[in-house]
Amino acid sequence: MTQPVVRFAPSPTGRLHIGNARPALLNALFALNHGGRFILRFDDTDRERSKAEYADAIATDLAWLGIRPDLVVRQSDRTALYDAAADRLRAAGRLYACYETEDELDRRRKRQAARGLPPIYDRAALKLTDEEKRAFEAQGRKPHWRFLLEHRTVEWDDLVRGPCHVDGASLSDPVLIRADGTYLYTLPSVVDDVDLGVTHVIRGEDHVTNTAVQIQIIEALAGPGSAPAFGHHNLLTTASGEGLSKRLGHLSLGSLRDQGIEPLAVDALAVLVGSAEAVRPVRSLEELAQLVDLGRLSRAPARFDEAELHALNAKVLHHLEFADVADRLRELGAPADDRFWLAVRGNCSVFNDVVTWATVARGPVTPVIEDLGFCEAAAALLPPEPWGDETWGAWTRAVAEATGRKGKALFMPLRLALTGLDHGPELKAMLPLIGRERALGRLGGAVA
């Protein structure tokens, strides 16, 4: 395979959500796996809804996922290219002016439906004379412009779905330019794909029908055989089967980040769910890229379960080594040493949980004393430092012999006194972190 060039082309009209992460990651991982290039293209031709702050947020979200574009472009900077392409299509007779209003088109579609005909544009505008066009323009009507589709079958070998075909005669000639002169999605997208040398278009299956149109436009502009390869992946839905959209704010990438979800958990779930690979924690995008095979994606919608994400997030944390988190521990003011991380990582659902365990290790902690006499007896048996992994076992054996306690009656009062909690990391690992002085204070009921 020659060096692939892929693109992710969001419209900066809102925040990215988990459903957007799927095509972004599939493209980035495809490039990573094949030594290719990843282009971030902002499809910002909608001047009213596109906002710079959304574009900035999208770039931030992609960086959080670990995606670093090789090139960033904005369609708003490339209008001259689209104008030139439109002129070429007009000159070739493939772009024609239409003067119907939306109401007129709606009435025409209803008449077709009443006759049992598909709602396909009847190309009435092709029959207009120059005089009729001038008359419309004298009325103040501005034309919109449609692409003249060839009534032939368009075929491609989809990277996900296998052999696909669409009969051009089953489609309406698409509007490429609105009456106000602005471009719809299709023409700028095609022109950019050609100009930027995009070799593989990987996107959601809701674009399958668009593909036949886009291949015809690409071939009209760049010649037969010039279209990129296409792959249409299954879409993410909610666990209940509802489609994802920007209105589900709690599933925006920014919201997931604020909840403390690890980017690698989002990466893994967004890509592996709905594929032949089991959802599992990964330590890097490079590792994840090795698991991705577009041909092994399911044809059924992929259900995104928030509970599964939270469970996977904990697993990701449990697999991280100290070197992966040392800087983050320092930022939170937690002990930046491997003993602490290895002791507590198994009890972290989100990374900020380390703050709780740092407090347990260093205080202040309000002990829970169920039996002061028992705790004082246990305190008297604390061995001298230095303490290590064997200290907890040796100490509790001595306490058991002295008090006759065993099992939960032995261990739970010690945990409550030492940590103030009835759950947490193994005290075999935590006791050396707490240290003798703090342990004595807590067993005596003092805050330490």
Structural description of this entry:
This protein has 448 residues and is of the alpha/beta class. The chain folds into 4 domains: 1-75 and 234-319, HUPs (Rossmann fold), CATH 3.40.50.620; 80-177, Glutamyl-tRNA Synthetase, Domain 3 (Glutamyl-tRNA Synthetase, domain 3, Alpha-Beta Complex), CATH 3.90.800; 322-362, no CATH class; 372-443, Arc Repressor Mutant, subunit A, CATH 1.10.10.350. It is 45% helix and 12% strand. It has 18 helices and 12 strands. The protein has a 3-stranded parallel beta sheet. Strand 2, helix 2 and strand 3 form a beta-alpha-beta unit. Helix 1 crosses helix 9 (263-272) and helix 17 (408-419) packs across helix 18. The longest helix has 17 residues, at 427-443. The chain is elongated. The mean pLDDT is 94.
Task: Provide key terms for this protein.
alpha/beta; Rossmann fold; Glutamyl-tRNA Synthetase, domain 3; 3-stranded parallel β-sheet; 3-stranded antiparallel β-sheet; 12 strands; Rossmann-like_a/b/a_fold; nucleotide-binding; glutamate-tRNA ligase activity; Glutamate--tRNA ligase; ATP-binding
Write the layout of secondary structure elements.
Layout: E1 5-8, H1 18-33, E2 37-42, H2 52-65, E3 71-74, H3 79-91, E4 95-98, H4 102-114, H5 130-138, E5 144-147, E6 153-158, E7 162-167, E8 175-177, H6 186-195, E9 200-204, H7 208-222, E10 229-233, E11 236-238, H8 253-258, H9 263-272, H10 285-289, E12 302-304, H11 306-319, H12 322-331, H13 338-344, H14 353-362, H15 372-380, H16 391-403, H17 408-419, H18 427-443
Helix pairs in contact: 1-9, 3-6, 6-7, 9-11, 17-18
